Amino acid sequence: MKYNQLANSDLKVSEICLGTMTFGQQNTIEDAHQQLDYATTQGVNFIDTAEMYPVPPRGETQGRTEAYIGEWLKKQQRDRLVIATKIAGPGRGFKWVREGNLKINRAHIKQAVDDSLKRLQTDYIDLYQFHWPDRYIPLFGQTEYNPTFERHTIPIVEQLEAIADVIKAGKIRYLGLSNETPWGVCEFSRTAQQLGLPKVVSIQNAYNLLNRVFDSAHAEACYRENIGLLAYSALGFGLLSGKYVHNKPLEDTRLTLFPGFGQRYLKPNVSEAVAAYVEIAHKYNLKPSHLALSFVRSRWFATSTIIGATTLEQLKENLESVNVVLDKDIIAELDAVHTRYPNPAP
Fold this sequence. Notes:
TIM Barrel; 11 helices; single chain; two-stranded antiparallel ribbon; alpha/beta
């Protein structure tokens, strides 16, 4: 396992991060602990979660993922692990989180951090992320910005000042963003630099062979501001594992269990692009999952690739992808498919 420095922080994170959003919904606490044990024995030191997990989000399960991790974490050597979690932002209608008031303000940041610390059974969080911007932005699968949807927002300076407070209190170490835009990256960085407030060190956005939107403006903004990408949905909601090729129905998968949750992947040209990528994998005697994960890992801006699994077998297969290095010929073929089907699932 390779370890990468996360921007200008002192965090060294494994190139594979264990995502946990299925813990508490598709995975029992026993499953979760088995995955955590196996991943860490394979060199994974980076674990990502969120206060809203598991998904799909429901009031009766909210916080269960952090609680499952906490039961495991209390038995571990804490300083060998990098734990990341997130505060839910407005715009998603989660009425069971802080009574539906999800503004990322000083009081809510303090409450959310304290609640996560309690569930995680730890004294500090290594990386604390804003799950969505407080302001309006297009969400999953939406590609057009519409200013008529603008709403009242907590100023970025207030958000950073609140983060400075919890950092000073020793409750978190670093700040990250998630589902953020290039403008947001630059504005957080500018505000922090001008006012001497905590600088953002990471951005957690979707990135995969079906969604390479990050390649352009996001990549430039993060390069100039020294911010590392934590790529989520690297397998495109499981599509890039090849298991859905030819519309093969599978039971107990995210797309069949939660059909409304993967709308960004149910768009024109997605199935055609997936089939083309799977064909390339077979041509080079690679598992489709290894091809997809290795591609994300190969990108110069990717600090860590987040993987998630519902079975230990899936986890093992995904972790084995670290042994695959794509040569320039394979990359060229992937780029050719991307030219033919550019970003079908943004």
